[in-house]
Write a structure and sequence with these properties.
The protein is mainly α and 158 residues long. It has one domain. It is 73% helix and 0% strand. It has 7 helices and no strands. Helix 5 runs antiparallel to helix 6. The longest helix has 27 residues. The protein is globular.
Length: 158
């Protein structure tokens, strides 16, 4: 098997990459549902989101090529809880550059999915609040909660 075939096989069978693609599809679907529900279907936001998601996938593929050529283990850069969960639940002990960025992209997409689900009216607000509280320990770059608060006020007034 040549290097190109090995790279394609490795990328196609990488669980982390598969999870990112599933998360991207879910976020896109819930984003569309939210836009339809709010009657705010805007092609500019859609194009920006599509460009961001395509860029995620392209960066993962290119980083996967780098991983195939240069073997680097970045698992030490992950928080201990994340490292233990990945090890126990996914059986992954080595995190290459592509997988490291997959973890970051997954967190970003999960936050977006939960936010869209809450704004669609699904009963996942308590899950969103727990995830937000956990992530606030690691970053201050979470999306604004203003939309969620204004959505609550709309539902309270009904």
């Amino acid at each position: 098997m040549g290097i190109v075939e090995r790279i394609i096989y490795t990328l196609a069978n990488n669980m982390m990459i598969q999870l990112v693609i599933i998360a991207i599809v879910m976020d896109t679907i819930f984003g569309i549902i939210r836009a339809v529900k709010e009657h705010r279907f805007n092609s500019c936001f859609g194009i920006d989101g599509a460009i961001r998601k395509i860029s995620m996938v392209v960066s993962i593929v290119l980083l996967g090529v780098v991983d195939a050529l240069i073997h680097i283990n970045l698992i030490g850069f992950l928080p201990i809880g994340v490292k233990e969960w990945i090890s126990a639940n996914l059986g992954i002990g080595v995190i290459g550059i592509a997988e490291f960025f997959c973890v970051l992209y997954l967190v970003y997409e999960i936050v977006s999915i939960l936010k869209n689900m809450v704004l669609c009216g699904l009963p996942v607000k308590s899950v969103w609040l727990k995830v937000r509280n956990i992530l606030q320990k690691y970053t201050n770059e979470l999306p604004d909660s203003d939309e969620l608060i204004s959505e609550e006020k709309v539902h309270e007034n009904k």
